[in-house]
Amino acid sequence: MMERVPGALGTSASLALRLGQTIFSSASLLFMCLDVEFYSYTSFSYLVTVMGLVTPWSVSLALVDAYSVFVKCLPRHPRVLLILIVGDWALSFLSLAAACSTASVTSLMVSAGPSRCPSRLCSRYQLSAAMAFLSWFLSFASTLFNLWLLPSL
Amino acid sequence: MMERVPGALGTSASLALRLGQTIFSSASLLFMCLDVEFYSYTSFSYLVTVMGLVTPWSVSLALVDAYSVFVKCLPRHPRVLLILIVGDWALSFLSLAAACSTASVTSLMVSAGPSRCPSRLCSRYQLSAAMAFLSWFLSFASTLFNLWLLPSL
């Protein structure tokens, strides 16, 4: 029963999902943070805050999954799984909101012309929003897989 | 068993939720649409599109609920309920995205000063975004209640 659901906590598919979340959320954070002006826009600061929450969450769950896959299969309690699902769910909503705000503000700045945003900066903002969307998608997939497992426990 | 879950399809709590969604989504649509310039911004057009989808969906489900409460209790099939859950889920994601984009673009325009947006227009945009957030919240609540009912069928 433990390996029946791919993508649930402790399987190799879940490890792949978590690694993808880590890569995309830290890429989004870096694209936005290595710029010096992100704190002058509300939505860019919000994106940095949310991605700063998503990255440690994904890293720690990737470590749990790696331990469970390579060393010893950990037992799964329904209460732990419930906390995981609620956390994933909340973080996926937050990262969707952050990605949408960043994308819409960037598109407004692009339409305002190069006086508002030089093309080098604007493409970095766009890349950061795209990475945030990918991170949302993977975290939503994790939620669905864990939610699927919950009734069987 | 039919009335055990408040808020599921065909109960009076569900009727209240659907009426609330109808009111908030149409208010958001009207606050944005009675303005003539909404189509010059991508995120405002997106909000209008999404709210134009949410309003008829909520109205038709409110009619189904009203029929079920006041006239005759309709049978509930798992397949119909699954379509409802998926539709509510997709619309709640879309309306969260639209509300976030509108709110962030509005806050950017407010910070740009009154030359960019006169205060009468800006407060209407803000009201529209707030109504879209409320509509998202109610539609998410409907999703959760129906999802809770699904395993018992």
UniProtKB/TrEMBL annotation, chains A, B:
UniProt record similarity statement: Belongs to the Casparian strip membrane proteins (CASP) family.
InterPro entries: CASP_dom, CASPL-5
Organism of provenance: Herrania umbratica
GO cellular component, one term: plasma membrane
Keyword Glycoprotein appears in the UniProt entry: no
Protein localization: Cell membrane
Keywords assigned: Cell membrane, Membrane, Transmembrane, Transmembrane helix
Transmembrane stretches, start-end: 44-68, 80-105, 125-150
Record lineage: Eukaryota, Viridiplantae, Streptophyta, Embryophyta, Tracheophyta
Pfam families: CASP_dom
Membrane topology classification: Multi-pass membrane protein
Keyword Chloroplast appears in the UniProt entry: no
Subunit record text: Homodimer and heterodimers.
Residue ranges annotated for the Casparian strip membrane protein domain, each copy included: 10-138
Listed name of the protein: CASP-like protein
